[in-house]
Amino acid sequence: MTDRTTGTIKWFNNAKGFGFIAQTEGADIFVHFRSIRGEGYKTLDEGQEVEFTVVEGAKGLQAEDVCKL
Question: What is the homologous superfamily of the domain 5-68 according to CATH?
Fold first, then answer.
């Protein structure tokens, strides 16, 4: 099972559907709206706490299975 971690939304562009999560330790993590749990319109707010899994994507580390806390 993959470990989950927490972080804070650094910024998220609703029009483009992506942003970055600041981790307590380590580099910022890319997040795409498709990785956010839930139905319908998916967005995240700056400063919002989230829980997620870090995976290696085509362009580096990214968040998957993002859950708002």
Answer: Nucleic acid-binding proteins (2.40.50.140)
